[in-house]
Amino acid sequence: MKHSIIRRLFFLALAVGLPFVGSAQYTNEKDTSYANGYYVKRVQYFQSLPVQKRPIVFLGNSITEVGQWQDVTGMKNVINRGISGDNSFGVFYRLDDILVQRPRKIFIAIGVNDIKRGTPVEVIARNYERIIRKVQKEQPKTQLYLQSVLPVTESVLADIYNNIRNNRIMVLNALMKDLCVKYRVTYVDLYNNVFKDENGQLFRSLTTDGLHLQPEAYVLWANYLKKQKYL
């Protein structure tokens, strides 16, 4: 799988005009930068909550955490497991706490913080694969939905987000989609079908800072999931 990801990445990088940087040049494939004080406290908080029976889980970073998922979906069995600053390593690390609840569905949205920290997209894709394999092995009845990384509005992003560009996100989303085909997992294309404007950017009216979302964006998000019968 590693070599197929690298070949796919090479051609995708050429297609969107990115230089190809293989993971051989990347030395932090066991990134623990997600495990800051907030992450630890948030995990401890989740662990203190009653175990739900067969919940629908929204799992991800700050974009997920901010969402009022029960409100926008109208479903009481939905739980929010977003942690601001989390990345694909952090999601994989805390999967056990999710899977012990034998979730009916898991909606994962992760990856933009990996890009922010300079993690190569093929490394992020391998983490997606680890997540898929773990869920399918330990909870084969759980329906897994990999949601695309959302576009950003590049013109208003702060300097701390300089690594986050839509061409990198597109490459990552293409690799994610390939994995979904391989493992028969549902790929949710929010990038193209909900949040991308005519210039390939995140709709300016839907974002607070070019990356994070306004409340009304979550209504559009939930409505799309319902329209596609994912919820």
From TrEMBL:
Keyword Plastid: no
Signal peptide location: 1-24
Coiled-coil annotated residue ranges, if any: none
Keywords attached to this entry: Signal
Limits of the SGNH hydrolase-type esterase domain: 58-218
Domain of life of the native organism: Bacteria
Record-linked InterPro entries: Ester_Hydrolysis_Enzymes (IPR051532), SGNH_hydro (IPR013830), SGNH_hydro_sf (IPR036514)
Any GO molecular function: phosphatidylcholine lysophospholipase activity
Xref: PANTHER family: SGNH HYDROLASE-TYPE ESTERASE DOMAIN-CONTAINING PROTEIN, THIOESTERASE 1/PROTEASE 1/LYSOPHOSPHOLIPASE L1
Protein name in UniProt: Lysophospholipase L1-like esterase
Organism: Arcticibacter pallidicorallinus
